[in-house]
Amino acid sequence: MTHPAGPDRVPLSLKLFYGSGSVSEGIKNAAFNTFLLFYYNQVLGLPGTLSGIALFLALCVDAVTDPLVGSISDNHHSRWGRRHPFMYASALPMAGCFFLLFNPPSGLGETALFCWLTAMAVGVRTSMTFYSIPSNSLVPELTPNYDERTGLVSFRLLFGWMGGLGMAVVGYQFFFAKLPGLSDGRLNAEGYQGFGLLAAALIAGSILVCTAGTHRVIPTLKSPPPFAPFTWRRVLREVRDVLANRSYRVLVVAALFASVAAGFQDIVGLFMNTYFWGFSSDELSLLLLPLAGSTLVAIVLVRPITERFDKRSAALVLASFAVLFGPLPVFLRLLGWMPPNGDPLLLYLIMGHAAIIVAPLVAIGVLVPSMIADTVDEGELQTGLRQEGVYSAAISFSAKAASGIGSLAAGIALDLIQFPRMVSEITSVPDDKIFLLGLAVGPGMLVLYLIMLLLLRLYPITRERHTEILAALAARRGRP
């Protein structure tokens, strides 16, 4: 049965402006999850474990700043509302830290390079927090409609994926293309410097376009509670109240495992595509092209699917498919059932697999924030408080966990198998190290996706339950 969208529709122009800001998150995620560990490990020579620890330490800072910023934005009083002042303020600091992340001073030793990576990663993540959490908090504020929230998140994911894919293609085609006298452009340090400059400019621009484009809705957004001085006791109480919501707890942990799985896959992806599958930079840019089509398919279909089956059922089916299909090519190669490197058929097979697996992963990426927006309503029913910012901290934190925990796991795995660093030739890595790399990736993805699936089964909010929650809230407010 298809359910009508109902009232509280969000205008298309507002969806476009709202979604545009996620270009910044897509570029940041592409850089952190694809190029950053490779750059510091293979180009600059920082050990994989130290690189992973640096990004994990930045995630630990996020564990404090994410709920903190959520609480502050929930309670902020200004003529520009609760969310927009922080969104405006985040643009330039994030762009500056991102540029410096890919432009470390020359001649740094191992310890200094580790400290630089840690400091700049913290700067990027913290400034991103001041944009992403207020931005994510707008979803339940802009509409209470069960299906319209899915549509709104779809625009955000669409811009985010296109920004990340576009920046990756530009990287492979221009900044990391093969140069005369170099074995491979991916090993050229200067390419990463130009990449960082362009990405930083696009990040600042997309945040400012989104914030200015949604500025007009400030008068229609929910007002903050009566002013009260900031205290850590208040923040801890708000976090405790949010975590008391079982639906939210289940969804947050499931999202965390999904993000770590995707992050681990992305972070080791450049290692896998370079060494395990033997693709060139040109082939890698071709590999990204079908992903754009898969993303569009997922964005277009996810709302009609959830209108028919609801979000929980759709997420379970999509997660089951990811568990079964995601690691398949790696296992087939380990068993010797894939074409050898250099065979044109191999590129087409991996392109086809990527096109198929990305669609359900994008759809899950749409569903989880939309489901979290529904838990905000359940939380209000339980506590009487609207805490969009604190609830949205989970979306931001789980996305960052992709590069934080994923980088730590990837870095440790690279050092455990003693994968070479600062190689002079792509083809110089021994076959036994490449085999061990694949052995670490296939089972690792399978276990993480399986845990995500088991947790999603425990999520209790269906369409019918959400309708009951909204009815109870309306009755409490004294209106139909």
Describe the structure.
This protein is an all-alpha fold. The chain has one domain (15-223, 235-477): MFS general substrate transporter like domains (Growth Hormone, Chain: A, Up-down Bundle). The protein is built from 17 helices and no strands. It has helices at residues 12-20, 22-43, 48-75, 84-101, 110-142, 146-175, 189-213, 232-243, 246-267, 269-276, 281-309, 311-325, 328-334, 344-383, 388-416, 431-456, 463-477. The longest helix is centred in the last third of the chain and has 40 residues, at 344-383. It is globular.
Question: Please, what is the average pLDDT?
Answer: 83
Domain tally: 1
Contiguous helical run count: 17
Helix/strand structural class: mainly alpha
Key structural traits:
17 helices; mainly alpha; 480 residues; 77% helix; disordered N terminus; Growth Hormone, Chain: A
What is the compact description of this entry?
The protein has one domain (15-223, 235-477): MFS general substrate transporter like domains (Growth Hormone, Chain: A), CATH 1.20.1250.
What is the element layout, followed by pairings?
Blueprint: H1 12-20, H2 22-43, H3 48-75, H4 84-101, H5 110-142, H6 146-175, H7 189-213, H8 232-243, H9 246-267, H10 269-276, H11 281-309, H12 311-325, H13 328-334, H14 344-383, H15 388-416, H16 431-456, H17 463-477
Helix pairs in contact: 1-6, 1-7, 2-6, 2-7, 2-9, 2-15, 3-5, 3-8, 3-15, 4-5, 4-7, 5-14, 5-15, 6-7, 6-11, 6-14, 9-14, 9-15, 9-16, 10-16, 11-12, 11-14, 12-14, 12-16, 13-16, 14-15, 14-17
